[in-house]
């Protein structure tokens, strides 16, 4: 491409849409959307990758005017949002499981601001979320997403993303699966907590002097932590499988 062609109207609009495609990626996708990453860093990264992939940018397929440009920008943001929703639904299985575990352990009131999302979250959910983030980094999900955007340039024209019916069907499926898999991860601790409650109830009937608050709750918390440590690796493997499945589902856009 000659330098005189760089400043053509179509190329400038294409670069702008490419910039917005990467911007939507960094705003919606796990890892990139971390609240601790400043907005100016995300914008700089989007600008950098727009420059890197400018040479492989496809030609604009619509007439350049204000209404079409606005619709094209909205289309790029919807593309990034759709990717983010699909990946977040799979990632949130671990935070949902952490919420159930915190409730059964009596830690539901012990919450703190999650540095990744900026919202209040039980400490068990926050711990599992941070460990899950390490799993995503180990999987090189951040590199996969860059390559995914590069491949999308050859199949989805800039400003040409259209929401499809199968996307809504998959979101409904992924939402139901988030609750199912999250409950499955938390089930060992939930089952043992219910069993401990039954045993403590029997002890209180046979030994009225048994103080549940002083003796029962610490034992219940200790057992829950032991099960959490024992099942931690399995939980991360389940999260890995869910994220890989969600990433493979992104092929529906091609």
Explain what you see.
The protein is an all-alpha fold. It has one domain (3-253). Helices cover 74% and strands 2% of the residues. The protein contains 9 helices and 2 strands; from the N terminus they run ααααββααααα. It has helices spanning 3-6, 9-28, 39-52, 66-105, 123-138, 141-155, 165-206, 212-230, 232-249, and strands at residues 111-113, 120-122. It has a two-stranded antiparallel sheet with strand order 1-2. A hairpin with a 6-residue loop joins strand 1 and strand 2. The mean pLDDT is 82.
- On the 0 to 100 scale, the average pLDDT is 82
Order of helices and strands: HHHHEEHHHHH
Strand percent estimate: under 5%
Number of domains: 1
Number of strands: 2
**Coarse morphology:** elongated
Largest sheet: 2 strands, antiparallel
User: What percentage of residues falls in helices of 4 or more residues?
Assistant: over 70%
Q: What is the distance, rounded to the nearest whole angstrom, between the alpha carbons of the first and last residues? A: 27 Å
- Rg over CA atoms: 24 Å
Note the total helix count. 9
Looking across the biggest beta sheet, what order are the strands in?
A: 1-2
Unreliably modeled segments: none
Structural class: mainly alpha
Q: In brief, what are we looking at here?
A:
With 254 residues, this protein is an all-alpha fold. A two-stranded antiparallel ribbon has the order 1-2.
Secondary-structure map:
Elements: H1 3-6, H2 9-28, H3 39-52, H4 66-105, E1 111-113, E2 120-122, H5 123-138, H6 141-155, H7 165-206, H8 212-230, H9 232-249
Antiparallel strand pairs: 1-2
């Amino acid at each position: 491409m000659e330098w005189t062609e760089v400043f053509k109207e179509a190329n400038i609009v294409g670069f702008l849409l490419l910039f917005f495609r990467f911007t939507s990626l960094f705003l919606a996708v796990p890892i990139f959307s971390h609240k601790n990453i400043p907005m100016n860093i995300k914008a700089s990264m989007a600008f950098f990758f727009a420059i890197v992939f400018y040479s492989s940018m496809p030609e604009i397929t619509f007439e350049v005017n204000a209404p079409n440009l606005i619709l094209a920008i909205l289309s790029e943001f919807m593309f990034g949002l759709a990717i983010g929703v699909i990946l977040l639904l799979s990632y949130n299985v671990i935070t949902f499981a952490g919420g159930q575990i915190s409730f059964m352990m009596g830690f539901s009131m012990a919450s703190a601001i999650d540095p990744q999302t900026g919202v209040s979250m039980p400490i068990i959910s926050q711990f599992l979320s941070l460990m899950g983030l390490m799993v995503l980094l180990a999987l090189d999900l951040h590199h996969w997403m860059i390559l995914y955007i590069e491949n999308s340039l050859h199949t989805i024209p800039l400003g040409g993303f259209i929401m499809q019916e199968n996307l809504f069907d998959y979101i409904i499926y992924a939402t139901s699966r988030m609750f199912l898999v999250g409950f499955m991860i938390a089930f060992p601790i939930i089952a043992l907590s219910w069993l401990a409650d039954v045993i403590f109830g029997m002890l209180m009937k046979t030994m009225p002097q048994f103080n549940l608050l002083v003796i029962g709750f610490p034992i219940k918390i200790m057992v829950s932590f032991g099960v959490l440590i024992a099942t931690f690796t399995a939980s991360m493997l389940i999260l890995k499988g869910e994220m890989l499945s969600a990433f493979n589902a992104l092929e529906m856009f091609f």
